[in-house]
């Protein structure tokens, strides 16, 4: 479509100017239109119009230009509207073409279906007619019998009646070999030519029907056989695990008797693995899975269906008939079809409920094939069995991949894994390559443990939420055994008196049970999977459980802010017990993995719950500091310019002392010495910092020696408390009481400096390093500037204007001056 060209500006000027416009006006109008098109400034034109007194002419020109542009816009819009209408018409015509094409395709399809139906019916009729024709020809040939063959044929009839097909075929073969070449009459020859194939066809049909019946029976029996074989493998594994459990128990007893971490060398210095030796007695007295399945079926009063005689009879008859190769192919194709049908997984039944039947059917199939391979006289070849097994492995791997990818429950995955591993153990005895199945299990190891960790995370959260964080009471010995001895978290081998108050709360044995269950489930998944050394992998997942789940859950509990002092103290005590429980878990994992303790306990292992343990101590310290701060509010009543020192110290010190003494009496029953020492050091250090803060506070403008002597009594009270705790640290290598007193060292050095008769000694480097090494110069200046001797009261110098200055105050002033000069 051609767009209309906008009219030329000169034309608009010529046409719109009117007959009275001068040449100058037309030029000026053309310049205006050109400026508008180029987007130039119209200011000069406006100024010129007003300067000449003709603004109406400019306004008229602008209106004329606007009208020309409106006409152009209208033409463009009309042109595009016509294009849209034509596009819609084109689409409608295209839609009708599509409908006609669709109708043509439908007609073609109907014609094709109508043409193919009669052809298929004709083909079926042809096949049926050809089969009938063959049967009629055989019947016609069998009609001519020879009277001389009555004896042989009568004997053949007897054999056929007695179902002795092989003897009947031998008889017929003798008639064919001896009588057919010497037949005196063509009628006899025709009789023999018809009779002999008929007998053979009868034998073939008879044996084929028996073989078909056997195929149906063996499919049902194979499932039962697979279940029996896998059950015997499970029983053998259970006996082996019981033997190893007894061995582990002997190791633990030897370990406890020795009192050390060195375990007695054991016979079980290997890990779980598939049995590669051919042990005929590994599963009991009856070493044959087929015989065991037949015995089990007979004991139930049912038809065992495990007799391979019909198969061997059919093979022998077909070999006699010269149809050996055809029967081999027939057998292989039918068994292949049976195996293919066994691969069908029902979508209506959950795989968790049908997996045992699925795998038992396949196991029974290949156990039967192995027996036929070894005793069938060449009925099936090893390459054929291997081809069937490769097909089965590929399908089982595909099914497992699909089912595992959709499973969201660790226990379900473990159940299927256990049965698959038993399938592998069973078929490995028959020399089938089960590595691809084991590879699938290994491939989904991380997913299983992620699901297991998720379950444990939920259980841990529930256990912590249900715990009131109070010491656990055990009234009976079995409770002590179940909650303490089973996890080896006892501190003494002596059984306590009951009722027994444990130093931990109820969540500790719950967390131990969850962790032990995780270890056992992890070992159960990892063992019997073809991997020799599973302990490093189990250890890695156990570290994830402790580091991510337990440590993270306890950290979230601590960060929630809902714990008080007693609860935080109980959590800290729990952490010490959990540290022993972690050692037990690693030992337990090593023992279940078949690793001797002397190997598993080599090297120092870092505590996996270190973050939550440190966070618990910090939380307890924070709560205690806050409590101390509440008591230190009583310092507001201290008289900093007292006339005499308080004889028993300030009130807050007695309150803090009583609280700390009560705290220690409770904490020493549940907290480890190291944790209690760290807590007391933190509390006393906080008290020292607060005392320093009192002197530095803006609320204390000045103080005298009596106030300092009161603080000195307070410090002696706290130092006495620290010395009284020396019995708690008697077994430690260093002096715990001295460490506690060192926490008050900064405040003590400050008080000693203020009470010294010659504080200027602080400037001596040797004395400062020995007696005032914790004091900061700036703090000393700020505090000593506030110090005033008791005689230096306000207006106290009026009566002693000519008296000599106090030597101590003089020394302090010199100290302050020199410290200021130094800074």
Automatic annotation (TrEMBL):
Residues 62-230 form the Exocyst complex component EXOC6/Sec15 N-terminal domain. It holds the Pfam family Sec15_C. GO terms for cellular component: cytosol; exocyst; membrane. GO terms for biological process: acceptance of pollen; Golgi to plasma membrane transport; intracellular protein transport; pollen germination; pollen tube growth; vesicle tethering involved in exocytosis. It is found in: Cytoplasm, Cytosol. Residues 1-26, 245-270 are annotated as: Disordered. Residues 245-255 have a biased composition (Basic and acidic residues). Residues 436-786 form the Exocyst complex subunit EXOC6/Sec15 C-terminal domain. Component of the exocyst complex involved in the docking of exocytic vesicles with fusion sites on the plasma membrane during regulated or polarized secretion. Involved in polarized cell growth and organ morphogenesis. During cytokinesis, involved in cell plate initiation, cell plate maturation and formation of new primary cell wall. This is Exocyst complex component. It comes from Musa troglodytarum.
